[in-house]
Each structure stands twice: as structure tokens, then as C-alpha cells.
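Assess the record.
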Amino acid sequence: MLKVLTLASLFPDVTRPTLGPFVERQTLGLAAHPDVELMVVSPRGLPPFPLSLHPHYRALADLPDQEVWKGVTVHRPRFTHWPGTGGRFDAGAMARAVLPLLRRIRQSFAFDVIDAEFFFPDGPAAMRLGEALGVPVSIKARGADIHFWGTQPGTGAQVVQAGQTAAGLLAVAQSLKDDMVALGMPGDRIRVHYTGVDLSRFKPGDRAALKAERGVAGPLVTCVGALIPRKRQGMIIDALPALPGVTLVLIGKGEDEAKLKAQAEQSGVADRVRFTGAIPQDEIAGWLAASDVMCLPSASEGLANAWVEALACGTPVVITDVGGARELVDRAEAGCLVAPKAGAVADAIRALIAKPPAPDAVRAAAQRFTWEANRDALYAHLSGLVSR
């Protein structure tokens, strides 16, 4: 049996059930492998007392230190997070807080490998833990952890050093692997590890009926992504005046929500823009299957799960040429890669609404992205690190 310790700061809990669904799904898939035993450690970053009493942190502080989440044992140790420091101390604080726990865990669960699910702060913390315990470490890069944390003054050197010393690395797209190599990480240790998609959940449906259920008349464009500057949802709102009758649904939450609502008001399209907040995967699947287009004009991505989920629903995408976009949009039916301009976004959406590709042809572009393939590749990767 391969015994895996998954280190994942982006792992859901009762207060944040939609956090890191891609990490959760990959982890549960690996845990279900017949030759794997798996345990999760999901550290919680909390500021020192009395800041930890602030309502913003209260629910996180009240989480149990250990629980069973969907059949998997999850430990949730606390580490000290200092607000306003750009995260530069998080990896060290995480490692110091987690090491005593891992020493105790190893007495009954002698894990063979540490699988870090995000490059910062998980990656540098995992390297310290692996060195202390004599256990190989794998770190997975997903996009922002390389493009943002890997380039910031306080964290970039930590990210690069972790990448240079880890036994193995994973990247969600070939383009992200190239970016990691450009930062100085060893290409021969990086394996491209595509995301998966639940093809039984994300699937085409009766688009007209699904729209009617959601109170939508006319063309529908959905955007799935955190409401943060990097995702550039404002560009879609800017495109809406040139798309009369089109409804835009923004799925996600984040710091830009108030700004985007004000922008929609100022542009005179507020009556055609809906904000759902963070919603469960089944609801996301319904919106995507109801949509004519999924648009996400991000400034950077790895290989966004939302892209793959839209295609699996038979819904073409309009996305910017970032990250693994070209690896996914490899046929005309999958949609369009556009310049990051409102006019280009509007033109691409208009063209796909006027001449929609067949949903089955769109879905075909996603069918290579299965969770079974994701699980098997991850098992082979981690097993290889252990057997060296």
C-alpha cells in the first residue's frame, strides 16, 4: 500500500464547503485507489490573539482539530498568520506548527510521501517537513501559486527553492511547466498532470429548459471564477452593451464584487448581470449546461477547471490566451481565444451565439480530462518517488 500524507491548505470545511473543489476531488479520488491509504493535513492560518477573535476568523478558529471529511481523516492544525506581511512568514510558521503533528501521525500511519497540493505556502512548508522526517515530497503547481507567489519579493525565493529541492513536481499544464522551468525549476522533475472533470455531473442538457428553470430568457453567458482582479470579469461587463439581450451570470465571490456591481450599474446593464456567490458544484453544472457561452478573460491561469467543466457541459468557452488555454481549445468547436479587450470578447460571444457548435462536439474536447486518468497519473507519480 502507498501511504500518502496530503498537505492542502486549500481544502474545504463546513465554513467553506466550496473551497478548493479540485483539490478535494483529486484527493478523494486518490484515497479511493485500492492500493492507497491517505490522510489529509489542512493547516489553518490564524492571526495571533486578540486578532484571532475578529469575526472574520471566528468560524475558522472554531473548526475541529480533526474530523472525517467524506470518508477521509483530516487534521486541521493552526499556524500563526501575520496579516499585512504578504504571506512571507506563512510557510515557516506552517511547518513549525505541523511538524509535531506529523511526528505523532507517523507513529500509527508511516506515510511514504508528502503530497503538497499548492505551491505556496504548502510547498516550502512540505519541504521542511520532508527534510525533518526523511520523506520525499511532491508539490503541485496550479497557476496563481507560480504566477503570483512565485514572483513576489517576500515569497518568490521560497517557491523557487522548494521547486528546486522537491523530489517531484506536478503542473496542471505544459505551459505552466514551462513557466516553472523559466523560474529555475528542474524540467526533468516536472510532470504535466491535467485536472479531471466529473463527466456524469458536468454534461449537456436541454438548454432552453435549463434557462427557463433559472428565469433566463435569451442568450446566457456564465463566468465561473473568484471575483478578483486577475479574473477580469469587468471586461465581460464592458462587453455587454454590445450584446443586447444577453444575460451574464457571475459565479464566485471575492473582493471585486462591489466594484463589479457598481460597474454594471454605471454601464446600464445591471438588470442583465446576476451574482450567485459561491455555489455547490451541482448548481455550477446546471448554470454551465444552460449557458450559450462560458467566458473567463483571466490575466493568468494554469489550466482552469472552469474551462474544462464548461466544455464537458457542451458549452464553448471564450477565454484569453493564457496558461494552458491552447492545450484545451484545440478545435474550433471548443470556442475562441481572444485578446484581452472588451470588443474582442463581445465579438467572440456574438459569433458563438449566432452559430453555436453542437454540444456533443464541444464535450468531445473535455473527454480526455477524467478523474480516473488524473488519479492513475498521480498514483504513478507518487509511487515513482517512493521507489527511487
